[in-house]
Amino acid sequence: MDHKFPVYTALAQCQDCYKCVRECPVKAIQIENNLANVLPEYCVGCGHCVEVCPVGAKHIRDDVNRLRYLLKSTPVFVSLAPSWVSEFPDVSLEDMAAALGELGFAGVSETALGAEVVSGELMKDMPNWENKLYISSACPAVVEWVKKYTPGLSDNITSLYSPLLAHCKMIKQNYGDEYKVVFFGPCAAKKIEADRNPELLNLALTFADLNSLLTEAGIALGSGSSHHKEVHIFGKAREGMFYPLEGGMIRTLEKNNVENISISGLDNIIRELEGLTKTNIDKPVFLEALACAGGCINGPGTICPQKAGISKRLSVIKNVEILTEQKTGNKAVDLDIKTHYGREYVSAPVFTDQKIQTVLVSLNKHSQQDELNCGGCGYETCREFAAAMLQGKAESEMCVSYMRIKAQRKANALLRSMPSGVVIVNRKLEIIECNRPFAEMFDDDTRVTFDALDNLENAKLNSIVPFGDLFRLVLHTGDDICRERYDCDGRIFNLTIFSIQKNETVGAVIQDVTEVQWQRQQIARKAREVLRKNLATVQNIASSLGEHMADTEILLNSIAYSYEDDQPDPEREQL
Q1: What per-residue string of b and e applies to 339-370 under the rule 16 or more CB within 10 Å gives b?
Q2: What's the rounded Cα separation, in Å, for the pair 195 and 203?
Q3: Dihedral of alpha carbons 261, 265, 266, 271, sign
Q4: Nearest 5 degrees, angle CA 497-CA 500-CA 506?
């Protein structure tokens, strides 16, 4: 568990469901001892696993304590993500600034200001663009993905700071380097951006963190502030507030000779860019790529992820319309935000077909027909799963079909080795599974059928055993039945009938103890015969034997009683 990386697993909470593996676009998950670790070298920080984990085992790194230390030691400016208006509806920037002032911040500004600068620089550059793909630098998760997984496209990322880093540079340019900058927004990948650029961005926290800080401090937004410390409000954004929406960045750009395309959702981006070559592009194409489906408004750090996306979109659009009517905004900013994005290629090992096949055979997949490609393990195909096993990212226990076959073989081995008859039936009293001792316990036809088919699947239980009513009783009540001696049709059975699933499945262990009981009765009779002869013999010498005769009688009686059955014996009564 790596708490230093922005996304990690709380291993004590992990329930080995593999949902994070299925959902992770880049398979940055390692299963070890059935627990799902996040692999930082593969992860792009999208935080999707945090959203989908059913037990809350995936977490975004908590930087609140680091924030508290920063607030005590230096003046801190807040860069507020433009989607804040959808997270804190009906709250003005002034009210938000007052609340942040009470928390100890020195100033607040909207990240959308940096977005407007980025859009302005793009429009300057676009007329000179070549016929190729240009990828937006706005989303840090997308930038991480390009650098790690498609390094050939790294040079296609626009050579500009992200809106957040551009905004940080604006704040420092206007207030000085002594001011530290902290970001609040819906994004987990911004933490990667902060870790990589500490000279501009000190910390990145989530809207959920901000809401918790306000709640903990007892601060109600919009209620006014008793805090007398001056809180700087740096500028007011306008069209840059569109950025958290899918297609929002494109709405800030003027029409030109460039084909603008918007794609959100990292899975969709990966699919759309797969196989892309220079020959596919015959004009300048700008791709606004956002890792979160629908845009930043649906990021993993939002307060209410269950809130309808359309409601969030409308709240952002409404806010931009109001700002446009007010003709607020800023003059052109003289700011150098040029940069270059390098490559950090994650080299995935390539395995020979022979190695892949060896792993598949170990999973009981001996032919192509055995490769179900069900996706239960989290990988699209069995061969991808085999490669992940060779890479040390997956375990054989993740394969559902393998575990089913393994469990079935263990069950079959147990059934075959048991000397007692074993049978499992469904609610219709049809046999699901049984062993050979059960098949040969009742009649030759049943045994012959079992030997021919190696099972009695779907056979009617009542046509084989004379006590099917006991199975039906257990089905109905769910209570087990144990009969050490059950007399039926001149035979004696030891029965244990147990519920597996009430009203659905019942199992039984059956022993034919007829011969054993007959042998016990024979021993009892012989003991009594010996007892009678002894009694007759000693009648004449009873006085000389004395107490020894009584001891002999007690001993022989105890032997007889221990071997006889529970039915009354007339001969025993006479004694």
Answers
A1: eebeeeebeeeebeeeebeebbeebebeeeee
A2: 8
A3: negative
A4: 45
d(CA 363, CA 374): 14
Specify the residue for token string 């929002």.
248
Least confidently predicted of 409-413, 506-510, 513-517, 541-545? 541-545
**Among all chains, which residue has been given the structure tokens 């626009």?**
158
CA distance 512 to 492: 6
For residues 423 and 438, the answer to whether their CB atoms sit within 8 Å is yes
Taking 60 as the threshold, does the pLDDT of residue 566 lie above it?
no
pLDDT at 327: 46
How high does pLDDT run on average in the chain? 87
Report the run of H or E that residue 330 belongs to, with start and end. none
With 0-12 CB in 10 A as exposed, 13-18 as middle and 19+ as buried, what is 490? Answer: exposed
Which residues have CB under 8 Å from 212's CB, separation 6+?
64
Structure tokens of 236?
A: 């007011």
What sign results for the dihedral spanned by CA atoms 16, 20, 23, 25? negative
| CA 435 – CA 177 distance, rounded (Å) | 80
**149 Cβ contact list (under 8 Å, min separation 6):** 26, 270, 345, 346
Give Cα 247 to chain centroid, integer Å. 31
- What pLDDT band is residue 411 in, cutting at 50, 70 and 90? confident
Pairwise CA distance, residues 439 & 419, whole Å:
12
The CA-atom distances, in angstroms, between 506 and each of 405, 435, 485, 501 are 22, 15, 20, 7
* pLDDT surpassing 80 at residue 307: no
Specify whether the CB–CB gap between 478 and 502 falls below 8 A.
yes
pTM of the model: 0.77
Two tokens, residue 522: 């024979």
Q: What is the pLDDT of residue 328?
A: 43
> Is the per-residue pLDDT at 304 higher than 80?
no
Q: Is the pLDDT of residue 549 over 60?
A: no
Summarize pLDDT for 456-478 with one digit per residue, the tens: 999 999 999 999 999 999 999 99
DSSP result, 431-442: EEEE-HHHHTTT
CA distance 422 to 538: 52
Query: Any idea which of 259-263, 382-386, 447-451, 528-532 has the lowest mean pLDDT?
Result: 528-532
What backbone phi and psi angles, to 5 degrees, belong to 123?
-65, -30
- Give the single-character DSSP code of 160: B
**Residue 260: predicted pLDDT:** 95
- The pLDDT, as a whole number, for residue 487 is 87
**Which single residue is written with the structure tokens 């568990």?**
1
Q: Using CA atoms of 138, 142, 145, 146 in order, give the dihedral in degrees to the nearest 10.
A: -60
Q: How far apart are CA 43 and CA 27, in angstroms?
A: 8
Amino acid occupying residue 286 = F
Which helix H or strand E contains 162, and what residues bound it?
Answer: none
Residue 129: HSE in the Cβ half-sphere, 13 Å Cα cutoff: 27
* Burial class of 491 by CB neighbour count within 10 A (0 to 12, 13 to 18, 19+): middle
